[in-house]
Structure formats: structure tokens, C-alpha cells
């Protein structure tokens, strides 16, 4: 083999070495990143005070409602750069966001009492479900059969309800309660968590294979401040936004407070998990109009679901 051939043969090996080195370096950097230390991801006031509904698609892109103005959906890349994704129909304003197993985006449209469905390829927006009897669909959760569960608070009366939205768009009332807000399904799809913002209580229900709830019991009660959105990790730990306190409370599957993560903002509205390993938490801050993020020890439940879809 001559000198030129020798150099050519070395190029693939050199490239492989560089790629492996880069991966090892990235993993080492991730290992050094402290857990539960929040910092700003997006620019301040890039979103309105109605910032809500974080959800991550299969490609790792974060979607958040009310980018720059009300009635929009913004998308946030891993580097924190945000841009407009879509504008909702006239008069519609989004709140919670989830993705179904087909990759469609589902949005709680609280002003028009709808659940909207977005085709992510064409950006076509359709009404998936509508119920004029809802005060508002606020936050939404999704189970492994693509059924949605929506919280429906009546803020003026300090009351609320829970709705199930089946895959055909049919809506069913599951329970009446206080100001229902954050809502989430457990990793095994056997429990439904719902919190009451004004009453500061977190409730848990048994969730049947048919999407019915029973055996309501108190999961945790906070002595102060409100609550908003919440999400589970793969071990069933529940992360809850403490609205007004500026923290994220992490509760064990037994309802024990494990830790509280301090944020820069005081008004966190919701939380989602993403990143390349599902261990990055994204939090929407109403008083800052931006997204903060921090690393956690276990991937999020919904991130793992997206990998199975």
C-alpha cells in the first residue's frame, strides 16, 4: 500500500474516533450537569403571560402556547431558540398540549370549549372534541390508549370537573370537585392524578382499563400557595408546579414530598419532560414569559411513551 492509500484508509478510522470521542465528551458533560438546578432556556418575555402547555414531540422539539401573542403555538429548539409554529383559529386560545400515538398535537382550547387536533406535517387544525357545557378544558393528560383526561375549573365558583375524551371525540364527565387544574396519568395507566389549585389538594383515582375512575383519595395537601400543571416520571414520581411559590415539588408514588426545585420565576404554569434522554424538565413561567429547564434523575413518562409509538 502506498502513502496516499494509507492516508485514505486512515480517514474513516479518524472520523469514527472523533465521533466516539464527541459522544463520550457529551456524556461526561451530562454526568457533570447538576440535577434539579433550573436556568432560563428561552429569552424573557418571548411568550405572553398565558404561557402554558409544554409538550415535546418525537423529534425533541418543545411546543408551548402563546408565543409572542395569544392564540399561537410556539416551538422551541433544544438550544432555546423559539419561533412561531401555528396560529390557532380566530378566538381560540390554547392551554394544555399533548401528543397522541400517531404524532398529532392535541390542544385544550379553553375559550371555545374545544380540544383541537393539529396534523404536524400539514399544520391543518381541526376540532377533535367540543362540549359547550365545559367551563373550559384546561390541562389535559393522555393514557396509553390515546384517551384524554381534561381538567375543567370554574375559577369564579372555586369548583371544577374532570372529563374523559375518547378517541372518537366523545366527552364524558368523570367527577365533580374543587378547582381542578393539573392532571396526569401514572406510568402503568392505573392511576389518575388531579390537583385543586384553590384547595391546594392533590387527589388520586384508580383508573380502569375502560377509562373509568373510582376510589378517590387524598394524595397530598400543601399548606400554602397554589398548584398548576404536573407530570410523572417513569418511576411514578409526580412533579407539580407550585404557582406563586416559584418551585416544582417532586412527590413520591406514596405522596411524600421528596424535594422542591427553586425556579427564577414565581409563577410556573406547567411542566414537561424531554431532551435526548427524557431527563430534561421544561417549565413555563407566566411572570417571566419564558421557559426554564433543569436536569432530573429519571426520564419522563410521556417521553418514554413517545419512544414506544
Please provide a written account of the structure.
The protein is mainly beta and 309 residues long. The chain has two helices and 24 strands. A hairpin with a 5-residue loop joins strand 2 (47-56) and strand 3 (62-67). The termini are far apart.
Helix content: 10-25%
Poorly predicted regions: 1-29
Quaternary state of this entry equals: single chain
Give the mean pLDDT. Answer: 91
**Radius of gyration, in angstroms, nearest whole number:** 21 Å
Characteristics:
309 residues; mainly beta; four-stranded antiparallel beta sheet; 2 helices; 46% strand; disordered N terminus
Give a short overview.
This protein has 309 residues and is mostly beta strands. 12% of the residues lie in helices and 46% in strands.
